[in-house]
Specification:
The protein has three helices and nine strands; from the N terminus they run ββββαβααββββ. The protein is mainly β and 164 residues long. It has one domain: Pnp Oxidase, Chain A. It is globular and about 60 Å long.
Length: 164
């Protein structure tokens, strides 16, 4: 029989995907940040949500643009992920410093991080403040995926990825 004890409440639902959220402000300024709170929240229509702390530099860019991109990072991108998650754009242009490859989204006005195997373009349809974070609910507009990950129906085979 298992013996259970009370565990920490913070981050109790783990593991969850650690993602990079990229965004672009109305003035064209681009940024990306590491996000620990992210998940699916609807399959019809497809929607995801990301939690952003309002003090983060990217919060304003996402709020004003009404869109974002969720970029799935793999183990080989860990160094870049850690850097983007620990340095603020208030201090330096971290995308330039790390030479992060970006492309324009196909549907939303935000960059995708080209070296991530999956990029999910989203338009914000709602948000809720949940305490420390504002949860942005994004309607999935377009999903970019490395073609080696797709089955014949266009579904992503996540077993082929080593996500962070």
């Amino acid at each position: 029989m298992m013996i259970k004890k009370e565990a920490q409440k913070k981050g109790a639902l783990q593991p969850s995907p650690k993602v990079l959220v990229s965004c672009r402000g109305l003035d064209g300024e681009e940024n990306a940040l590491a996000v620990g709170y992210c998940g699916n929240c609807s399959y019809d229509p497809p929607m995801v949500m990301v939690g952003i702390v309002p003090s983060r530099y990217s919060y304003k860019l996402i709020k004003e643009s009404g869109c974002f991109v969720v970029n799935l990072a793999t183990d080989d991108y860990k160094e870049t992920f850690d850097y983007l998650g620990s340095v603020s754009k208030r201090d330096e242009d971290k995308l330039k410093v790390k030479k992060v490859n970006t492309e324009n989204g196909k549907v939303v006005n935000a960059p995708i991080l080209s070296d991530c195997p999956v990029n999910i373009e989203c338009t914000i349809v709602d948000s809720i403040v949940t305490g420390s974070h504002e949860m942005f609910v994004g309607k999935v507009e377009y999903v970019h995926a490395d073609d080696t990950l797709l089955d014949s129906d266009g579904k992503i085979d996540f077993s082929k990825l080593t996500l962070l």
